[in-house]
């Protein structure tokens, strides 16, 4: 038996270390938390994606009384981008979470289903997607969504 290890690479930074473009996208994600429909969890998640064609597409979580029918902020933004601009790669995704009257102090990780969709998006366009996770104390930067999902399942896996 062999032990194997996987490493995940990301950076932590402060607001003033972000580029103006990154700050703009994170600000939009933060603003989007105001549009979140989350009467059940009261956990407001905002997302924004920047596309290769320069467009910015917004998302936020959409809950439902039948809980599994709801959708996370990240997927709402990525699916909206795919619906409106199917030919444009996604270059950057920013996410912010607001609950109990404030933005979370620490960055919050996207759920597994959203990571899977982020991976599909990278593969679809053959383009790395930077991911910015906002927290009041620090901001995480992943240069590729792939860093967030080691041992990912992609279309090549279907070939066996
Ligand atoms: N949520 C997101 O929008 N993104 C995630 O990656 C994790 C969770 C939402 C779903 C639900 O509306 C609320 O946060 C609580 O789970």
- How much of the sequence is in beta strands? 15-25%
Class by SSE composition: alpha+beta
The count of β-strands is 7
> What ligands are attached or bound here?
tetrahydrodeoxyuridine
- What pattern of helices and strands is seen along the backbone? EHEEHEEHEE
Helix content: 10-25%
Rounded to the nearest angstrom, the distance between the terminal CA atoms is 23 Å
Q: What does the model show?
A:
The protein has 160 residues and is an alpha+beta fold. The chain contains three helices and seven strands. The chain has helices spanning 20-32, 73-84, 112-125, and strands spanning 11-13, 44-51, 56-60, 90-99, 102-103, 130-134, 139-142. Strands 1, 2, 3, 4, 5, 6 and 7 form a seven-stranded mixed sheet that branches. The longest helix is centred in the C-terminal third of the chain and has 14 residues, at 112-125. It is globular, with a radius of gyration of 16 Å. The relative contact order is 0.19. The model has no long low-confidence stretch (mean pLDDT 97). The structure holds tetrahydrodeoxyuridine.
Keywords:
seven-stranded mixed sheet, binds tetrahydrodeoxyuridine, alpha+beta, 23% strand
Brief sketch in words of this structure:
By secondary structure, the protein is an alpha+beta fold. Helices cover 24% and strands 23% of the residues.
Give the helices and strands, then pairings:
Blueprint: E1 11-13, H1 20-32, E2 44-51, E3 56-60, H2 73-84, E4 90-99, E5 102-103, H3 112-125, E6 130-134, E7 139-142
Parallel strand pairs: 4-6
Antiparallel strand pairs: 1-7, 2-3, 2-4, 4-5, 6-7
The structure holds tetrahydrodeoxyuridine.
């Amino acid at each position: 038996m062999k032990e194997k290890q996987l490493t995940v690479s990301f950076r932590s930074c402060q607001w003033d270390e972000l580029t103006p473009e990154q700050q703009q996208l994170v600000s939009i994600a933060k603003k989007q938390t105001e549009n979140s429909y989350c009467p059940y969890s009261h956990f407001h998640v905002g997302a924004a994606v920047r596309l290769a064609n320069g467009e910015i597409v917004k998302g936020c979580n959409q809950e439902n009384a039948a809980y599994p029918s709801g959708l996370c902020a990240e997927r709402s933004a990525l699916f909206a981008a795919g619906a409106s601009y199917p030919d444009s790669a996604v270059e950057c995704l920013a996410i912010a979470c607001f609950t109990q009257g404030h933005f979370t102090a620490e960055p919050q990780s996207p759920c597994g289903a959203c990571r899977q969709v982020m991976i599909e998006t990278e593969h679809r366009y053959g383009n790395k997607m930077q991911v910015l996770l906002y927290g009041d104390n620090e901001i995480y930067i992943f240069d590729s969504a792939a860093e967030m999902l080691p041992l990912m399942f992609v279309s090549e896996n279907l070939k066996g």
